[in-house]
Amino acid sequence: MRIEIWADVVCPWCYIGKRRLEKALASFEHRDEVEVVYRSYELDPFAPEVGTETTVEVLGRKFGADEAGTRAMMARADEVAAGEGLVFSHADALHARTLTAHRLLHLASTEGRQQALLEAVLAAYFTRGESLGDHDVLRRAAAAAGLDAARVEQVLASNEFRDEVMADVAQARAYGSSGVPFFVIDGRLGISGAQPTELFEQALAQAWDTRVTA
Fold first, then answer.
1. Over 80: is that where the pLDDT of 213 sits?
2. Do residues 154 and 164 lie in contact, with contact meaning Cβ atoms separated by under 8 Å?
3. How does strand 35-40 pair with strand 2-7?
4. pLDDT tier at 107, thresholds 50, 70, 90
5. What is the 3-state secondary structure (H, E, C) of the chain?
6. What are the backbone angles phi and psi of residue 2, rounded to the nearest 5°?
7. 116-137: buried (b, 16+ CB within 10 Å) or exposed (e) per residue?
8. If pLDDT is split at 50, 70 and 90, which confidence band does 211 have?
9. Residue 22: how many CB atoms within 10 A of its CB?
10. 192-205 pLDDT, tens per residue?
11. Quick check: 20 and 194 in contact, CB under 8 A?
12. Stretch 87-114: mean pLDDT, rounded?
């Protein structure tokens, strides 16, 4: 059984949803027969490649809130994250486009290290407040995930895997999704948002029981 997850690497609810799905999978008796694949999605494709404003500044402008109000809004998500064992500290991280990070995730997929890179990238941004527009940050994440350094440099210096990222975004829209996280189990069952772990447990059981086998 395959689970595809559309997510952006600067989306707090995507990280929270990731943890909740992982908890559901940990107790799923057929866990070893489940493949999890992450698909790309850009929440802000118009963001600068190299960040110049902080996340709190960008969100404040987007939602028409002052700094105090924006930090309070972010703190609510931080509290939910803490309940999943995550410590968020990204309000002052520079806001940048995530295309390059997604391209590296496609590279990592070809090397069987997508999960490791995704976790490293999420930790860099959410836990340490590092900008994903900084190639040195991405290099460190790639090294921590065990990616081939020469291939990482090739991707960073090119547009390699851009088409794959755009195809992922197009597929999400074809499914009717306008936001992330968005989960699709076996191409049949869709789940929007960082739902409670219990809902993921129910969805896994339902998908398994109704799967079509050869």
1. no
2. no
3. parallel
4. very high
5. CEEEEEECCCCHHHHHHHHHHHHHHHCCCCHHHCEEEEEECCCCCCCCCCCCCEHHHHHHHHHCCCHHHHHHHHHHHHHHHHHCCCCCCCCCCECCCCHHHHHHHHHHHHCCCHHHHHHHHHHHHHHCCCCCCCHHHHHHHHHHCCCCHHHHHHHHCCCCCHHHHHHHHHHHHHCCCCCCCEEEECCCEEEECCCCHHHHHHHHHHHHHCCCCC
6. -115, 135
7. bbbebbbbbbbeebbbbbbbeb
8. confident
9. 14
10. 999 999 999 999 99
11. yes
12. 96
Q: Which amino acid is at 15?
A: Y
Show the CA angle centred on residue 206, arms to residues 202 and 212, nearest 5°.
Answer: 155
Q: Confirm whether pTM is higher than 0.70.
A: yes
* Residue where the block lists tokens 């908890």: 23
Q: Are strands 182-185 and 189-192 parallel, antiparallel or unpaired?
A: antiparallel
- Dump pLDDT digits (tens) for 29-81: 999 999 999 999 999 999 999 989 999 999 999 999 999 999 999 999 999 99
